[in-house]
Protein 1
Amino acid sequence: NAGVTQTPKFRVLKTGQSMTLLCAQDMNHEYMYWYRQDPGMGLRLIHYSVGEGTTAKGEVPDGYNVSRLKKQNFLLGLESAAPSQTSVYFCASSLAVGHLMNTEAFFGQGTRLTVV
Amino acid sequence: DAKTTQPNSMESNEEEPVHLPCNHSTISGTDYIHWYRQLPSQGPEYVIHGLTSNVNNRMASLAIAEDRKSSTLILHRATLRDAAVYYCILRDEGLSNSGYALNFGKGTSLLVTP
């Protein structure tokens, strides 16, 4: 059982380049989230999705877009990367609140992105 | 969102119990108390959660004050592998705000010494 898998694990971008981060979960979770974590800080929510085909903005959405065309995948896009987007990005997933089972969130191992 | 307050850092000796405090004086009736931890260079992982009653699992225990304005995560015997940042998070499960996303603060950095 792989859990939450993030691709790639590391990436260096030049300012203005674009890229897509992929998050895949194999637990049939309804909810998925993208966070960023800057040095010495907690995680901040970028975008989230409560189901296939739905996305919404979190705390720091500017400069990012997301898509959830399939339930198991949640993509985070940077259209024109900026140095301020240098960070570690974490994806997470969980069952829907109200589910009979535990709704703990499962996190990926992170993607370390550097924009130069 | 209701806020939590945790000490920036704590230190413990290996094989000693550790009590990590969290204050949440503005907690609402539908806020669950969640604890996650983040080991170095890894994503956060779930530790435990509760609503009103004390909770135990294989990783830790959660003691919740009677008025729910504070809680304590208890690691019964700290190991070197328990060195991590511990986050106390309130999750409002009565309101679909941000898809029930976890709102992380800075947490408590736990140092475990041999």
Protein 2
Amino acid sequence: NAGVTQTPKFHILKIGQSMTLQCTQDMNHNYMYWYRQDPGMGLKLIYYSVGAGITDKGEVPNGYNVSRSTTEDFPLRLELAAPSQTSVYFCASSYSGADTQYFGPGTRLTVL
Amino acid sequence: KQEVTQIPAALSVPEGENLVLNCSFTDSAIYNLQWFRQDPGKGLTSLLLIQSSQREQTSGRLNASLDKSSGRSTLYIAASQPGDSATYLCAVYNSNYQLIWGAGTKLIIKP
């Protein structure tokens, strides 16, 4: 099992551009999550999904969108990138709510 | 609003010492609590998950305790090794099954 995979590992984006961060899990988990981690801070939840076709906002959803068309994939879309979105983005999955979460290696995104 | 605090932010100890990392949370109405390890430039690895009905969990040299009434959890690391150097993060599940995170404790074990 590969677990949770994320692409790309690094990316530099110009202000106003858009991009999609990819996340795939092969553990047949129902729940998937997107977090951002700023330097010296804890993780903040952006969006989460409890199953294919169901998504909901987390603590910091502004400027982002998600979709969940399959159990395996949970892409994160950044629209009109801003410098405040410079961060490390982590995708995670779990079998159910309040269960152990498994994390991908992260995407380090810089917006200039 | 649930807030999670980890003190200290950084800790440096000689190899072989036993040590305790602290995590406190403001709302005792939590489900589970999870401890993670994060290595520089890498993702997070789950170390221990304590269910709200449990008082502690053990895995190898690690022991995590949970006291919901006082809003505290501790992670005990026995016989520390240089390979234990990492940032340790505590997170609690709120009533919406969302994880609320502390900022972490950066641990350095000196050989």
